[in-house]
Write the structure tokens for this entry.
Amino acid sequence: MQGSNSKAFPASARAALDDAVLQSALHNLKSGFPVRRAEVVADLPEFEALRDAGRDIKDHTLANLDAYLELYEERVTASGGQVHWARTAAEACDIVMRICNDAGARTVTKGKSMVAEEIGLNERLDASGIRRVETDLGEYIVQLRGETPSHIIVPAVHVTRQEIGATFREAHDGLDPDRSLDDPRAITDEARERLRADFFAAEVGITGANFLIAESGSSVIVTNEGNGDLTQTLARVHVVVASIEKLVPTAEDAMAILRLLARSATGQEASVYTTVSTGPRRPGDPDGPEAYHVVLVDNGRSALIGTGFQDMLRCIRCAACMNHCPVYGAVGGHAYGWVYPGPMGAVLTPSLIGIDHSSHLPNASTFCGRCEQVCPMRIPLTRMMRNYRAVAHERGLGSRRARLALTLWVLVASRPVLYRWAARAGAAALRVLAFGRGRLRRLPLAAGWTATRDLPTPEAGGTFMSRYRRGQQR
Amino acid sequence: MSTARAEILAGIRKALRRGPLAAAEQAALEDRIRRHDRHIIPERVNRSTGELVELFLAKAGEVATTLEEVDDNAGVAGAIAGYLARENLPARLVAAPAVREFGVDWDTVPTLEVRTGSANRDDGVAVTVGMAGIAETGTLLLVSGADTPTSLNFVPPHGIVLLRRGDIVGSWEDGWDLVRRSPLPRVVNFVTGPSRTGDIEQKIQIGVHGPVRLHVILVG
């Protein structure tokens, strides 16, 4: 798959663990979002019931997705907008490029959109010579640094403020080179000042969508900075790029899920701006875009419907799973090698680009289950990662050593007599090795485990099965 | 293009192991849309009108919206002038045409320079009118239209919103019911505080691309 580096996960993860700057940036994440999320969830007694409602709304929509998409299209058209259908990433980019060219675009402003990253729209725009301006502060930082986002809602989470200051000093000419950029306030003010002109200059503004509403043919964006709204209000042409599973039937359906989204994402009760947009500027409207386009992207999603991975299409991209994931917290987003990191990425990436290109990702989990505990849409992330591990094994992916170990394990675990004998022998051997101290500081073949902790050894008195038998006889 | 549309829809139907929906099933979906049933509404909005105003003020305050109350239309112009003076801002603003519904007499503040219309790049202060205040989260409901340009909600660094006390409702759905009374406007903005970001080391900064300050004048 073009642009994917997921195959390098083990090496990238090792490098990330040794990156002191990254580790300090990730530390901020772990102490911030999970705490704030827990506070606002505790303030809403209905949260658990809303999770059920959110799951049911998306399941209902997916079971009728064809019909709702047709209704949605009909209503976009009725409001003066235009819907474009894209089977693949390339098709979606072609459509956006055509709209930009027809509009004579020289500058394009962009709100944050993960699906735009997924389809490689940034590269296409840059190759065409159109000036692309990312307007979300995190995306803007990442763009100036020539990087990709490492988190789906805080794209520059891996960058420290000192690095951002240096990046701004280099990129923003015409300013006092000795100005202070030490604190987040100064950096934010400079970005605000710098992007003002671009919002007004852009011929085309591109945004994603958090929801599409079939009832009215509307797109909904949820932001905190106001950049998405400036992007879609001030440009002559507004292009919404959205994947097909963003659809919900009604505004009430969207509102139920909105109560989950902001709390799960940033620990806010509501994001600052939730904007429902329907079609282009109306007669008498003093502002707003003259044209409104929606590019509906499939790119492998319809093929997930009816499979064991359909539940992934409920994902609302809140990032709670990665904010609570010990593996993401240790290695950051770039190690995952493609657009979507963390537990949701470990499932979505194989679903979209194929397990052959991403067989390491389902292994990037301790199966502690925190991701599932916090997923507002109740997506069974660990079950799906486990299923992908099975698929990867069946296809002969993964290292020879791991496959050999698994084959041996199956050989033993599926033969009760052999397994019990091996368990007895293993327990006895560990006890002998421990010289009665009850723990081992080193164990051959398990140095990775014992490097940072002791291994407790089994107590005397036999295995579970032998004790169970003795109990039955009494 | 139409090929892509047909193929995507066919692909979904194949995955769902069925053809296009039967007429009765299609009608059921359209009926679900027509009913637009509510899901769970937070208990916190089940309270009297007076208490909803209290909740709105508290919740808006939590998200760094500043608030001031005036008794009637006559107090609005003075409140705006007072805000500009307190913030050390030039006596200049751009106002939504809808502000006239509040009968604001700009002549009572002769030094104030008022332009009516949508926002320009160098406007410093906007005054517009909210359709409703949502107590659940301290959110303002703003709609686009000839009299309420959307750019006023986002371009100037200082946003002042006039809101009638009687227009404070409980839940987001209560707000949307007000929107449903007329044809859906091009844009409906739910605004919960001034713009903010946590993109730099997750340290919250108030005031990014949207307004740096959001001030509500509650009338009545």
